[in-house]
Amino acid sequence: MITIMDNTETTEKTKSCDFRMTRQRRVILAELDSPGQHPTADEVYSRVRKVLPNISLGTVYRNLEILSQTGMVKKLHIGSEQRRYEKNQKRHYHAHCVMCGRVSDIPSDPFGDIDKTARENSRFDITGHELVFEGLCPKCNDDNQ
Ligand SMILES: [Zn+2]
Ligand SMILES: [Zn+2]
Predict the structure, then answer these.
(1) Same domain (yes/no): 72, 121
(2) Nearest-CA neighbor of 10 among 61, 81, 72?
(3) Is residue 2 domain-resident?
(4) Which residues constitute the domain of residue 122?
(5) Which of 104, 86, 109, 114 shows the shortest CA–CA distance to 141?
(6) What does the pLDDT look like over 6-57, one tens digit per residue?
(7) What's the rounded mean pLDDT across residues 61-88?
């Protein structure tokens, strides 16, 4: 079990309450399966609808919320855009294109020392950190030249 680093919105609450793996949740998880993608709820919705034509956007939102509370899905807050989701996986960082909004994974070892420093300097019980690199993606960078 991977620990959720950004635990501001993941509470222990769901660990005790009964979580059922419904068909809807299974389909949503399957849509989030391809690594490197960080779809918004709207994007998840349009993909899931191909499998479950009757599902509503509200249901997708609610299930994404529940799945992120269980730790199976990670909710990303990047820039001021819509929330993005990804299946929880090995810790990695993100690069955010300030031009087109694209979000890419940066496979990188966690900077574990940052947590230690933060813990020492804040007296917080630090459980993790979020780090987003901003810049231009290769495509936007090419367009600029
Ligand atoms: Zn871009
Ligand atoms: Zn990612």
Answers:
(1) no
(2) 72
(3) no
(4) 90-145
(5) 104
(6) 444 444 444 445 788 899 999 999 999 877 789 999 999 999 999 999 999 9
(7) 88
